[in-house]
């Protein structure tokens, strides 16, 4: 069955993967960029959704971690208030609302966190994104709140392509110093988009952790990238204090994906295998340029 899919933040890394996936599947996709539709202009957003009549709105647009710390008012306007408005419009239009949330809600203890762990909100980004999640669930009965891990994948042309950036860095030789004390679950956007679609097909609104299976330190992540790009550059795990950030991000963002299991879906692929698959795709893209 052909569906109508509306994606916010068109042109972004995850939104582009979603647009590619649903277009290839034969669905009717509308993914306006910020220049075409700013989600802060809520009247225009409402008109666009009521006109397009999507089966699902996939909401990826957000203000990111460091920008939130610098601009807290905009952080809550975009990540909380605009999210809540989108959810309300979806409720009115009878559209499912997919909110792309965050993994950075659990503080510093190094362990895996499930959907049932209490949150510890250390950054403005975490507070604003989490508030977006709470409001989305309140405003729209058919909200699918998705907490992904550290995202990678997509075209090398995406400015935020983490794997490609590390490939460029490693290609220069020498060594790469990276945090050995920050932990997460790297998540391939190709796998994430497919799993979100499985959740939609199961028609089970709710809260889902959807990350690459397993986890590791930032240094483990970079090592895997370098190895799978066929490079010999040494990766040195260091204290994250060497790279001061505006936001005091949590030490641990590794997630258990319990609710996926509870609704009978298979786990996401292992993150290390996903890096291997993606590096092959990326190197092919570079060769064909
Ligand atoms: N990247 C990660 O590791 C990660 C991890 C967990 C969760 N997430 C969440 O995943 C989602 C997608 O992340 P991503 O990495 O794909 O981000 P991204 O590449 O920066 O995409 C976000 C897009 O939203 C657009 N945007 C910003 N403000 C907007 C507005 N007011 N109206 C319309 N569009 C607007 C951005 O445009 P401009 O670029 O022109 O500003 C950008 O194209 C976000 O919600 C993020 O919080 C990301």
From TrEMBL:
Keyword NADP in annotation: yes
EC annotation from Swiss-Prot or TrEMBL: 1.1.1.133
UniProt KW keywords: NADP, Oxidoreductase
GO biological process: dTDP-rhamnose biosynthetic process
Pfam families per the UniProt record, alphabetical: RmlD_sub_bind (PF04321)
Molecular function as annotated in GO: dTDP-4-dehydrorhamnose reductase activity
Residues in RmlD-like substrate binding domain copies: 4-282
Cross-referenced Gene3D superfamilies: NAD(P)-binding Rossmann-like Domain (3.40.50.720), UDP-galactose 4-epimerase, domain 1 (3.90.25.10)
GO cellular component, one term: cytosol
Record-stated family: Belongs to the dTDP-4-dehydrorhamnose reductase family.
Entry protein name: dTDP-4-dehydrorhamnose reductase
Organism (species): candidate division WOR-1 bacterium RIFOXYC2_FULL_46_14
Source organism phylogeny: Bacteria, Bacillati, Saganbacteria
């Amino acid at each position: 069955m052909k569906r109508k899919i509306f994606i916010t933040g068109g042109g972004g890394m995850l939104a582009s993967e979603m647009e590619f996936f649903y277009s290839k599947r034969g669905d009717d996709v509308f993914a306006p960029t910020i220049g075409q539709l700013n989600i802060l202009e809520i009247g225009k957003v409402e008109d666009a959704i009521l006109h397009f009549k999507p089966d699902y709105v996939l909401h990826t647009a957000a203000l990111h971690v460091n920008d939130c710390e610098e601009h807290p008012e905009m952080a809550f306007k975009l990540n909380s208030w605009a999210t809540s408005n989108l959810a309300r419009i979806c409720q009115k239009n009878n559209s499912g609302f997919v909110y792309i949330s965050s993994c950075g809600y659990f503080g510093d203890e190094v362990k895996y966190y499930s959907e049932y762990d209490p949150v510890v909100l250390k950054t403005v980004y975490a507070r604003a994104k989490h508030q977006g999640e709470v409001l989305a669930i309140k405003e729209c009965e058919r909200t699918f709140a998705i907490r992904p891990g550290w995202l990678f994948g997509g075209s090398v042309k995406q400015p935020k392509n983490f794997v490609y950036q590390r490939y460029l860095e490693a290609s220069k030789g020498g060594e790469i110093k990276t945090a050995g004390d920050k932990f997460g679950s790297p998540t391939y956007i190709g796998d994430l988009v497919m799993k979100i679609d499985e959740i939609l097909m199961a028609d089970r609104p709710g809260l889902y952790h959807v990350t690459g299976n397993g986890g590791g330190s930032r240094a483990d992540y970079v090592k895997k990238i370098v190895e799978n790009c066929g490079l010999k550059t040494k990766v040195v795990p260091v204290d994250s204090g060497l790279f001061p950030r505006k936001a005091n991000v949590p030490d641990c963002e590794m997630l258990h994906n319990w609710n996926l299991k509870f609704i009978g879906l298979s786990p996401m692929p292992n993150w290390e295998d996903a890096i291997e698959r993606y590096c092959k795709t990326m190197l092919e893209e570079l060769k064909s340029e």
